[in-house]
Predict the structure.
Amino acid sequence: MTHLQVQICLESVTAKLKLSRAEVIEILLKNVNPNLKSILKDLRVEYIGYIGNFYDIIKVIGEGTYGSVLKVQDQETKKLYALKLLSNQAKTTSFLEEAAILADLSNYKECNRYIVCVYDIFNAYYKNKIRTFVKMELIEGHELFYLLNLMYKKNISLPYDLIRLILYSVLKALSYIHGRGVAHRDIKPENIMFNSKYIKLIDFGFGCTNKKIRSTCSQILGTQMYAAPEIFRTYSSFTNNYVKLDYIKFDMWALGVMILAFINVEYFEDRYEEDFNKHIMETKGSFMKYIPHIRDKIDAPDIKYILENLLQFNPTKRISAKEALKLINKDKIGTVKELNEFYNSCHKISKLSD
Ligand SMILES: Nc1ncnc2c1ncn2[C@@H]1O[C@H](COP(=O)(O)OP(=O)(O)O)[C@@H](O)[C@H]1O
Ligand SMILES: [Mg+2]
C-alpha cells in the first residue's frame, strides 16, 4: 500500500467513525500492522498514544515546579527510565527548549559522567489529557540537598576532599555546557544528584542559550538564595525584564553559594541571606571579604581562592568554570564512593538520634 492510499484511507475512516486521527491511529497500531507506525511517521501524522501502553509507572520520584518526575519501566525493553511530566500550565517553550538543549548535549561523551542523559521528548495521553514527557536516564540516588539537610540537622561538616569532589563535578558539567553557550540557571543542591557511580547535574528547566536571554529566558528567575547580585541590580521595571544578564556568570555565583553552604551549612541556613542582602548592591570585590570568620577557617587554599573568585560581585570579574577547573587541586579530590560512605554514615547518626 502506498503512503497516499494510507492517508486517504485514514481520512475516510476518521470521517466515518467520527474519531480523531490520533484515535484511529491508536486503534490501527494496536490491532493491525506493526509496520504502520513508521509509515504514519512518514506521513507526518503525530501519533499520540497512552503512556500506559508503553511504560509501566512504578512511582512518582519527584515533584517540582514544572511537574512531576516518574520512575517508569519500558514494557518492551524492561529498562528503567525517569519521565519528567510537564504540568498543564507549563507547556511552554522553556520546557521544549530544555529537552532540545539536553537531547543535543546527550550526544556527547561527557553527558554520561556529569550531566543527566536525555533520550527523547514526546507527547502522550496521561490521565485523559495530552501531556509532554521528557525521557531521561534514571538516576537511582539522592539529591545533594538531602546530604546538606542531614549535615545541618546533625551539625556535621563535609571533609574538604568531598567538597572538592562536588566542586569539581559541577565545574566539569558547567564548563561543558557553558562552552556550548548554554546556561543552567538553577544551580542548587536540589538539582544535583549522586549515587555510587557519579554526581550529575539535572533539571535544565531554566536552561537557555545566552542568545535567548532577552526573550523567553529573561522572564524566569532561579532560586532566590542562589541568585547573583546583578539580578537585583539590573531589573528594569520599565521593560519588566532583566536586561543584559550573562546567565553563565549567574551559574558561577550560584555554584559559589552552594559550595559556601557545604563549607558551613549552619552559616548558610542561619545568616547567609541576611549578610547577602546587606551587600546586594555592591559592585566591587568578593562577598567573602564580609565573612572573614568563615573565609579564614577554610583549610583548603584552592577552594578558598576559587570561592573568592566565584563570589565576585562584578560578574565580569567572576571566574569561569574552565578557569576554576585549572585551579583545583586534583590530587585531593575525594571519590564518589567516599561521598556515599559519608552520606550513609550521616544517615546512621541521624537514625540513631531520631
Ligand atoms: N533523571 C532523574 N532520575 C532520578 N530522579 C530525578 C531525575 N530527574 C529528576 N529527578 C528527581 O525529581 C526532582 C524534580 O525534578 P527536576 O528536574 O529538578 O524538576 P523541577 O524543575 O520541578 O525542579 C529532582 O530534584 C530529583 O529528585
Ligand atoms: Mg529541580
User: Anything to note?
Assistant: The pocket of adenosine-5'-diphosphate (ligand 1) is lined by residues 61-62, 64-66, 69, 82, 84, 116, 136-139, 143, 190-191, 202-203, 205 (CB under 6 Å). The first helix runs from residue 3 to 17. The CA atoms of residues 14 and 21 lie 6 Å apart.
